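We modelled the chain as a single entity of 398 amino acids. Its sequence is:
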Amino acid sequence: MLWVAFVAVTGSDGGGSAPMLHSRPIAVGPLRVTVGATDPGIIARWDDLYAGFPDAEPGSSTEELRVSISHGATGMLVSMLDGIPLLEHPDLAAHELEITRVLNHRKLDSEPDRVHLHAAGVARDGRAVVMAGRSGDGKSTLTARLVRSGWEYVTDEQITFDREGTRIEPYPRPLTLRQGVWHLFEGIGGERKRDDYHRVETSLRELGGRAAGAAVLPTVVLAPQYRRSATNSLIPFDNRADVVDFLVSCCHDTERLGTEACAVLVGIASRCPAWHLHFDDVEVASALVASAWEQAAGSPVVGHRRLPGRSASAATGWGWCLAADSVAWAFDDGSGVAYQPTTRRFARLDALGIALWEILAEPTPASVLLADSPDEATGVAVETWLEMLAASGLAVRS
């Protein structure tokens, strides 16, 4: 159980003992989360922020996190995590942000066999839009606008795929909105105008939205990027290998799961068309998200295959060959990707790179590879590929 206890005290001496109140137990992935507090307002606030989560089943998990927050004599609020100071701040909203941050990490650590993206998501009719990218690119703002306009909320922080990578399990944590966008959402932010405080956790009730009630199908991948004076536009990724490259850059688990995580991301890139979304107007961007979602419904799957790895006889050969644990996939659009779990290096492959990979499953002298090149330019490209594969640990001299 994940236990968060808020203990409100009126002075340094404790000022008496109020009864401990408890929030609704919720299921956050495999965690069971409950809040305890002596202040009913804190309980009500927590239940509001986390209303999108389902009730926790009895006996679901034994993990426990003890956080207390108290009013000290100075008027500051002090959060304690297992007896260790976590945060000292006068605004309860700052503690909400910190507790949510801790929960993000605990959820990630409690799901070692799942693939997670740093991404937001919304859904309609069981089909989800995955909006991945860096912090500050406008994902949460765009998600809040979409939720307010009727899309179901999946998450604004952590997309979690099931073990097969075919479904997204909702993580409807509070949406975090920066002060610069509060004016876009009536009723958000209130009177919080402190110079040293610029974010607020926002509930679905405040946005007039609802959470996705069940796992949803990933349908389209977007890379949103807010820039002032940007042209509002959808720009397709060049190929599916570029989509995998982008997803890898947003994935929390490539080091932890290695080849397994890459295989999941390859499958997602195969099934989901992807666009860069450039915008400076959240209303226009919302319409572009809807357009991408509609286009994705009619888009065919781009097939892919796993390329052969190093053959069993390669160790006794001579010349160039693939590293023993290197893996690669080729898409039907002519692009490919390769991954080296030991060096944790990732590479995109073009048609020549794919052809060279298949040859190097068996030991092959560089002289043979160059002799088979139809022209000088191809020979130079082959040499370049060999150097790149060797530098990444994907190929070696056997």
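As a brief sanity check on the tokenised model: The longest strand covers residues 217-226. The two ends are 52 Å apart (CA to CA).
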